[in-house]
Amino acid sequence: MTDAVVTALREIANRDLYQRNAFHVTNLNTSVDRRTTRRRQQHVVAVLEAGADLQTTGSTDPDELRLAFDRLLGDPRRRLVDEVFGEWGRPNGDCGCDTPVHQAHDEAVYAHATAIELLISPPPAAAQAMWQRAGERWNTALEDPQFWQHLRNRVLSLDDWQLAASAVDQIRSELTATLAGPLLDLATTGDYPARVAKVFEAWPVGGSARQRWLLDAMRPQYARAEDATVSLRRKLQQGHQHVDPVVTELEQSVLPVYRRLQVLLPSEQHQRTLTLRDDIALVYHNGAVGIANEGSVSDRRIMHLFDQAEGYAGTAETRAKIAENRKAAKKLATQGNFHAQNSSRPRNAPPQWDAEGCGCAIGILLLVAFGIFLLIKGLS
Description:
mainly alpha; 2 domains; 0% strand; elongated
């Protein structure tokens, strides 16, 4: 069973890591005691209920304030987690820290919070430098034994039966992943995945674990795109009349996810992205096949769909199969046009070769080729 400390760290590991920090929201120092916290809560509630102006550098949103006070007063384990990302300020003597320990921590917090904001809103050049600085500052803070001693002393000061000394060890094991959380959040849902990828590659916190974190974060994206392509291929089996809506859905729901994955986990390095790339190509390809087999071989959509299929195909095998069927479709269309052009010739015209018979033969070959390709891809 996951402990409340680990759960709390994972819950806050997103772009709002600092903006929704309970101490930031309430404008309270991380060393504040319960009595002072409760008095502050009562004051805030009274001011807001009276409709007066709340003089604060924190939040004035009633819901945010309620959640923040609940977090500070309800569970000391969650409070301790928020202390890690709140401003420590100058030591007051209770924690036994030297001033540089608090200063190093607060510089890391400030740099990291600023870096997140810069990556959400351009310019990206400033974000790159600030993220590097934030990572270096956090590494400096975490490497200092007094940082961890500060947290142990806070456990003693909070003096609550729910908060054991082991909470500090749990924070130590999970903290680097939490610090990467805002980047992972922006990687999965942010507007600038290419910028995030560049920053994440140089992010100095977490070492070799970073790649695992990124893969874990992108698993839901993979699953959504993979499930969608399977569904779209099944729709195509219901008839060529589904081609246009299938292609529209593919381009609106699957391709944006694929492009994000290609930026963050490129198909040249990640098999799952490569497989998705081939599956996208197969949807386009099967659309072309459906129109050629059931519709008109002269339909202009066929070659456009083959173009798209070839553009997305990632493996040599898939490209070869698409090229083979494209060639067959083009030949079939050519023979069909030839037959149409000569079907109105006068009866005494010179005899022509049997275009209709040839067209049927090519159509059969085309259908067989398509069927084999679909079967191979379906089993792979």
